[in-house]
Amino acid sequence: MTQKQKTLVGGVSILGVAGIICKIVGVLYRIPLAHLIGPEGMGVYHKVYPAYNLLLTISSAGIPVAISRMVAHYVTREDPRTARRIFRIAMAMLLFLGCLTTLLMLLFSGRLAALQGTQDTRLGYMAIAPSLFFVCVMSAYRGFLQGQRNMVPTAVSQLIEQIGRVFIALPLAYLGMQKGGIAWGAAGALLGSTTAEGAALLFMLFRHKQADRALDQIPQRQDGEPLSDRLIAKRLVYVAIPITLGACIVPLAGFIDSIMLTQLMEQAGMAAEDALIRYGAYAGPVLTLINVPTALAMAMSTNLVPDIASGLARGERAYVAKETGIGLRMAAVIGFPCSVGMSLLAQPILYLCYRGSYTAAQLDVAAELLQISSLTIVLFTMVQATSGILQGAGKQRIPMFTLVIGVLLKIALNYTLVRIPGVDIHGAPWASLLCYTASMLPNLYFVGKYTGYRFSVPDVVLKPLFCAAAMGGAVWALWRFGFGDPGQLNGFKLTAGILLCVGLGAAVYVFLALKTGAVNREDLPARVRRFLK
User: Is the distance from CB of 147 to CB of 306 less than 8 angstroms?
Assistant: First the structure.
């Protein structure tokens, strides 16, 4: 590992850039996919993912974080032998879970489709089921390498996943549509995702052998009694279960949404086909675009777990408090401008990406949803950062309980709002805002309690918020007076306008962030510091 990879900002940069690229590719991939299978087909496609994500989270969310945290601890204590044993035992667990969840999805595909009220999803469940096994095994390798602060293999494997979807899933979706309509088209796209996950797993197998040789360079301490396999397994389970339960809560809410939202809209008098299209627009274009900037939040959470665990293993409380502060400031610096910028440019972005796939009326509804949903970006970013810090500090139960509270409130508000005619699907993003706010506030309290970090309102809230507001004013004025109604612009003018607004917004935000101290030069990677100098 290089020194760059061992730093928090360096690791976030590696995973964050890869994550952003992956999310952008994911957005671009869904544009031709929507052309191929249509709005109703996209509704079917996106109905499969909530149940898939729930099973995937159950099987592969907690153990990789436990691997990362425990490997980081023992590598810091110069005990690579125990780090390897942790990996081998965790791999056995994940192999079992991968086989089990794949089998469950295959066996219960028909019942899941019936529960959601969309029988066309059954083929999709069968097509994507094997990827549960592939991702489970791959997550063991990712956790092992992340525990050594080597983020590059994870980043490359994520790119392989997304690029594979483009070159494999789209042709399979086309062939599926030719064979049997939207059900087969959506299933073809999902089968392409499974194939891409298999390709990424092959890459991780190769990189693990290289990383294992690098671990040989760490001298093995001879003092201390070696841990038994049973004790290692118990510790993995002890760390993994609350993380898994906490990570399951958001996918569970998504699965409940996939059942509730269409049925609630139908209860309000909406036709079943229109309800499915509205759900597809929300779960597809809107949430897909929201997930682009949240890639940085996921990268930050992934890096914070081993970073905080390593600091605590060394007994360096001051280091832990400092890294906590950097993590929270980075979350705010990323979250505020992304929320403001995407909310302001919601309509132009949707018209640019999906004008040929949805009607103007459907795009206007999606734009309204995206304007509200964009505000969840900063909340989600803070929730991810605080969860990573608490997991690294061994307090993994706390984010689990706070997310439970948030999701229960979300379900209650969904049930209240979505049934109201005229509100319908617009209630869903407001419910998500309540969910993440209810999770974030107690997380922040416990982060301060267990890391020694004293929350700074100017650094974490006021400075990035001021910079984002000024950026938003500049972007709004440029679009309002320079371009106007996106429905009247051709593709070239739309693209040029969005790029100019993003460029102006980024320039204003970076300038103000450096001037106000929202971002310190010491927070930046060395190459960026040299460039600015």
Answer: yes
